[in-house]
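Morning. Coffee machine broken again, so started the prediction first thing and wrote up yesterday's gels while waiting. Chain of 328 residues, entered below exactly as on the submission form.
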Amino acid sequence: MAQPILVVIEHGARGINPASWEVITAGQALGEALGLPVEAVVLEGVEADTVCSQVATRQLAGVRHAVHSGLVPYTPETQVQALVQVITAAAPVYVLFPHTYQARDYVPQLATRMARGLISDATGFRVESGRVVLTRQMFQGKLAADVVFAGETPHFVSFQIGAFRGDKAVLTTAPAPIEKVSVAPSPPLLQPGEPFQEAKQAVDLSKADLIVSVGRGIKEPKNLDLVRELAQVLGAELAASRPICDSGWLPMDRQIGSSGQTVSPKLYLAVGISGAIQHLVGMKGARTIVAINKDPEAPIFEVADYGVVGNLFEVVPALIEEIKKRKG
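Came back before lunch.
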């Protein structure tokens, strides 16, 4: 059997981290491009058997369940030791991770332990003459760099949250086989404290299905009531680009972008947002993007599924009225 691509699933007390589904999508796309099988790795943890069963519903060659009581609770030491053993046995070409706080904690140590390369926070890839070229952003998203691996496999890659859509992971009617793998990590030298929570904001926009986001086109803070009403009639969360939050018009936990939250809602409605790359980084994973902007050359239209070129102070009231009519 060909060397596989391994996707490491992150899970915890809240279940599977949604970013893990996104990396399965990335793994499936990479596997198809290279003609390689894709397997998932689930390390022992809360409801790990259930997690394995859920992951097995995606089109995978198999699920490896690493079993050892020392893996609970999470510590980077035991995580690295267990994955070294799993990876050594599987001999994969690529090992993929979601670019979460937890991955940032242990993946660099894992790559160093195995003396292999790591490309972190990748936003996509392409295959040229059989070689995988990964894209990652630099300087707060101002530049995009193409990078390739040098040296021996396995290669380690973490994908930026929102770079792929988790709902695009291909399902299967025949669940992937689950194999329990015994690992033997040494006891950690440090005892872990309370786990860091990724979303300490008053609102976790990453969980929102509908988002109305506002930019500098709103002109002044008193006009925010207009987009608040739009969000209310839609049942959406209100968000903003960085200038709005920097000005104190909305709290910082409402900011979308490279220095704010990364989201992938079903609908992202951008109102008066030009579409600077720093903002696009945070929302381009949305399933449907609708943009309202008076500038037909605004970069936001390059990623929008639907665009309205017009004055938001005319378009938004009409949109609110129409939504109210349809709701009766």
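The mean pLDDT is 91. Going to sketch it on the whiteboard this afternoon.
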